[in-house]
Design goal:
By secondary structure, the protein is of the alpha/beta class. 38% of the residues lie in helices and 17% in strands. It has one domain: Response regulator (Rossmann fold, 3-Layer(aba) Sandwich).
């Protein structure tokens, strides 16, 4: 099922979130999944764009197979990152899943207008968060066919 990944034995995930606790939790749940993942982290939008454009300390960064993106972050927010990614000819093929605490309808609409691939609201209960991340892996990492990047 994973033959469409660049490396079918390992998926590269860029996790972008300024909340260290959420980032740690998401990373731990992802690591428990069935597909081996190499998880890279950015704590704000500027770091995420530096990673994606291989700037500074990220000059050797791999191209991610999936981006998990928070919205409300310092420097550049998730909307700005999403817009950069989806307007870049090379990056726009990377699936971007919004993973936010915002359940605000204008935020959801704006993300889809900016071509987000999916919008998920972070549950407040740990077991629901765990279930959501597992479902995310099942869907995006097992069933979705990724383009050749």
């Amino acid at each position: 099922m994973t033959e469409f990944l660049k490396n079918p034995t390992e998926m590269i995930v860029l996790l972008v979130d300024d909340n260290k606790a959420d980032m740690r939790l998401t990373e731990e749940v992802l690591k428990q999944g069935k597909i081996k993942k190499k998880i890279f982290k950015a704590q704000n939008g500027e770091e995420a764009l530096d990673f994606l454009y291989k700037k500074g300390e990220y000059k050797n960064a791999p191209c991610p197979d999936l981006i998990l993106l928070d919205l409300n972050m310092p420097r550049k927010n998730g909307f700005e990152v999403l817009e950069h990614v989806k307007n870049d000819g090379e990056l726009k093929k990377i699936p971007v899943v919004i993973l936010s605490t915002s359940n605000n309808e204008p935020d959801v609409e704006k993300c889809y207008k900016l071509s987000a691939n999916c919008y998920l609201v972070k549950p407040v209960h740990l077991d629901q968060f765990f279930d959501m991340i597992q479902a995310l892996e099942t869907f995006w990492l097992h069933f979705v066919r990724f383009p050749q990047i």
